[in-house]
């Protein structure tokens, strides 16, 4: 009998400490709990990860993450703790550091620390999709609520103009649907990330997430909207 070797899977939650628009954003209370706890809990409940770690340069974030059962085996380097560092840079640093410790993985998940809408079911589904379809990566996306082809701009003289005026008379429903990163999670083959250096390739599959389960959090108003949407979502799930 031939036994298939189980893939080794690492979950990385990138959470640096230098948030400017929302101080201590990654550990700020979200409906009573540090927001990073939602991502940690989803990863723990999925029960598909060999390790769940938080990449941070901040001791307070590290202590809170450890309290909620994530691992912080090392702190992030100064080089990858500034505004110029990409998610790919952070993930590669983690993977290479683990490799020095003799730990190597087949897949790596990135779970963002300010994404309370992540669930264990979503993570398990993402893993099934990437394994079943032999994809390089899967990413959570959501449909833009307005067609970007009809976007406007403000000219230097302060007047409004269409960026693509050729779309002026085209009905919104006749334009190609467009999507954007939901800012929640993605999964990628470790070899793909280390070889190419990008977080997704032409062989990346989408997981379309409803707009009701997505909220980018960049400012205090976004934070309030996210709490309202999350509360409504949980209330509807109980019905």
Coarse morphology: globular
Number of helices: 6
* DSSP strand count: 10
Class from secondary-structure proportions: alpha/beta
Q: Which sequence of SSEs, written as H and E, runs from N to C? A: EEEHEHHEHEEEEHEH
Main β-sheet description: 6 strands, mixed
Cα distance, first to last residue? 47 Å
Please characterize this protein's 3D structure.
The structure is a single chain. The protein is of the alpha/beta class and 239 residues long. Helix content is 31%, strand content 21%. The chain has helices spanning 36-46, 59-67, 87-100, 120-133, 190-196, 220-237, and strands at 9-14, 29-30, 33-34, 51-55, 107-111, 137-143, 152-154, 160-162, 179-189, 204-208. A six-stranded mixed beta sheet has the order 4-1-5-9-6-10, with helices on both faces. The chain has a two-stranded antiparallel ribbon with strand order 2-3. A hairpin with a 5-residue loop joins strand 7 (152-154) and strand 8 (160-162). Helix 1 (36-46) crosses helix 4. The radius of gyration is 20 Å and the shape is globular.
